[in-house]
Amino acid sequence: MREDGVMGHTASFFPAGRDRGVTVAVEGFFAFVWFGWGQADAPSWLVAPLAVGTGLAALLTVAGVVVTKRSAGRLRVVSDPAARRRYSVIVGLEFGLLGAGAAVLGATGQYRWIAVWICLGVGVHFFPLASTLDNRSLRLLGVLLVAVAAAALAAGLASTTAPSTVTGAGAGLCLFAFGLATLLIAGRAPAGVNEHLQRLPPRRRDSER
């Protein structure tokens, strides 16, 4: 019983049902993107590991799609109008600000910092998105991506290492790890735990975690 309780609490850190599948697919896809971007100016010794990461991320994306199709229920952003509105605002602002910042950096010849800006913005947008999607794991993922952006900035200023190499490897690894954890840990919850939590209102759900 104790083991089931611990597993259920751990699994509740990640989304359940169809939201779980979509989260795995999205995090896998963007891990694929970051690993690919990281190869642009990577040293020769790092190209192969990043390529392996790209392949594994692609497989994770496919696994997420499969889980989504096999899962019952509706997505939170589909079934909850308030969550859908907040999601649209958050993602709209993210794309707008990141696009504008990247355009300014490109226009001023500071192309090498675009990866840092994008990584920072993606990390920050996970904080409001965590409550909107009722996915607590996104807060920790956001912290890690902000840390990766800071590390890439420091590396770019202090050495000849391309910031995109740091963000590519760091963000790709973080997204892949969280996607894999969502796939495996949330899927190992005791029977009925995730389904029960998924049916509860957000405030009630938090009180039972």
Provide a descriptive summary of the structure in words.
The chain has about 210 residues and is mainly alpha-helical. It has one domain. It is about 80% helix and about 0% strand. The chain has ten helices and no strands. The chain has helices spanning about 1-10, 15-40, 45-70, 75-80, 80-105, 115-130, 135-160, 165-185, 195-200, 200-209. Helix 6 (about 115-130) packs antiparallel against helix 7, helix 6 packs parallel to helix 8 and helix 7 (about 135-160) runs antiparallel to helix 8. The longest helix is centred in the N-terminal third of the chain and has 27 residues, at about 45-70. The two termini are about 15 Å apart. The model is unreliable at about 1-10, about 190-200 and about 200-209 (pLDDT under 50).
What would you call the shape?
A: globular
User: Structural class, please?
Assistant: mainly alpha
**Main sheet summary:** none
End-to-end span in angstroms?
Answer: 16 Å
Helix-strand blueprint:
Layout: H1 2-11, H2 17-38, H3 44-70, H4 76-79, H5 81-107, H6 114-132, H7 137-158, H8 163-184, H9 193-199, H10 202-208
Helix pairs in contact: 2-3, 2-8, 3-8, 5-6, 6-7, 6-8, 7-8
